[in-house]
Amino acid sequence: MEYLELIAPCHFGLEAVLKREIIDLGYETKEVSDGRVTFLGDYEAICYANIFLRSAERILLSVGSFHAETFEELFQGTLAIPWEKYIPKDGKFWVTKAASVKSKLFSPSDIQSIMKKAMVERMKSHYGISWFEETGAEFPVRVFLKNDEVTVGIDTTGVSLHKRGYRKLTAKAPIAENLAASLIMLTPWKKDRILVDPFCGSGTIPIEAALMAAGIAPGMNREFTAEGWKHLIPAKSWYDCVQDANDRMDKTITKDDVDIQGYDLDPEMTKIARENARLAGVDHLIHFQTRDVADLSHPKKYGFIITNPPYGERLEEKKALPALYRTIGERFRALDSWSMYLITSYENAEADLGRKADKNRKIYNGMMKTYFLQYMGPKPPKRES
Question: How far is 189 from 261, CA to CA, in rounded Å?
């Protein structure tokens, strides 16, 4: 069996979550670095990683790495990669993204142009043709330079993995689906515990929780670029993987088995959240309602608040933040034995919530530094068997 090196990028600060997911899928991790996990697997692993991983951004097939401080070194390093092993004669290939950190080569457009030329030269000599029609399957290449070390991968995913396909309608500042799933996985929440998101917006956190509760793989209802790579991955591998995902679903789960709730002050958002949940196939597992956080209450103990409240990015919203966060803190204290997990970029959040977090994890939401404030309540007593 041929082992491939696969790279899974993720949000900065969530590498440990992604590593655990990859190990749970049965693959060996090779390296964990800022915003990415490299692991080993066969071509079938491309199917499984794309369909099952909740926290990854995409899956790249690593095809080469080398040192380059000049464009000539970049050209020669790219030329040395065996592109013909992956890209057929009619393949459509281009460098879709170049990122550079602390490297002498930093112009994305120049990096992309030079690498494309080197790829063409390599393929010309292998296939014995001077012109590529590029009418076949797509092979988008992504390159990352850090400290003059170049890592080259072919994107197997296409549209980012956070786009599950269910969120047709969004809120003003929606949380990405893979970030929402990662936050839930950073908590001890399980499907037999209550979960409330009092700022649910378009419903992403409750929907991701419901997908987990029902064992629904996040990528089973969408397409991937590598599905067109039939010379590398037989169509049967994708069918088998989707069938496996289907077999792992809990089709008997009902609202009686879970207590997942989403509130929003805006009735239009509540409507949008319900529609997104329907598209995700989990609307029967979530109770959405139009409700102010000031009215947050629950008769049961040991529940979870997992939420993405307003950050106050706009000036007029910033003025309202102290009062809003004081209200969140008051309602949380009124909930007996509950835990709260809250992501925010608001620097004064802990002070206004009225309590220092038990844990404060730094996570980058895109380029924005956020804090995942974790307030751990007591564990419920063990049930007698």
Answer: 14
239-282 pLDDT per residue, tens: 999 999 999 999 999 999 999 999 999 999 999 999 999 999 99
* Separation CA 71–CA 117 (nearest Å): 12
In tens, the pLDDT along 136-173 reads 999 999 999 999 999 999 999 999 999 999 987 776 66
Which residues, in sequence order, are CB contacts of 128 under 8 Å at separation 6+? none
Cα 204 to the center of its chain, rounded Å: 12
Q: Is 145 helix (H, G, I), strand (E, B) or coil?
A: strand
Which DSSP letter does residue 232 get?
T
**Residue 119 near residue 143 (C-beta atoms within 8 A):** no
Q: What letter does residue 385 receive in the DSSP assignment?
A: -
Average pLDDT over residues 345-350: 95
- Looking at the DSSP assignment, which residues form a beta bridge with residue 175? none
| Paired residues of 370 in beta bridges | 363
Residue 367, classed as helix, strand or coil, is: coil
What 3-state DSSP class applies to 83? helix
Both tokens of 150, joined, read 């170049």
Tell me the C-alpha distance between 190 and 292, whole Å. 25
User: Residue holding tokens 């204290």?
Assistant: 333
Sheet holding 28-33, edge to edge: 28-33, 36-41, 4-9, 60-67, 149-155, 138-146, 92-101
End-to-end CA distance of the chain: 45
> How many residues are present in the chain?
385
Query: E strand or H helix at 250, and its extent?
Result: none
User: Is-contact 85 180, C-beta < 8 A?
Assistant: no
Q: What is the pTM of this model?
A: 0.95
Cβ distance 196 to 308 under 8 Å? Answer: no
Helices (H), the chain: 15-24, 43-52, 71-79, 108-127, 177-185, 204-213, 235-248, 267-280, 315-318, 321-333, 349-353
Cβ–Cβ < 8 Å for 156, 58: yes
Tell me how far apart the alpha carbons of residues 336 and 297 are, in angstroms, rounded to a whole number. 10
Domains of the chain from N-terminus onward: 4-155 (3.30.2130.30), 177-215+251-375 (3.40.50.150)
Helix (H, G, I), strand (E, B) or coil at 254: coil
Rounded-to-integer distance, Cα 266 and Cα 290, Å: 6
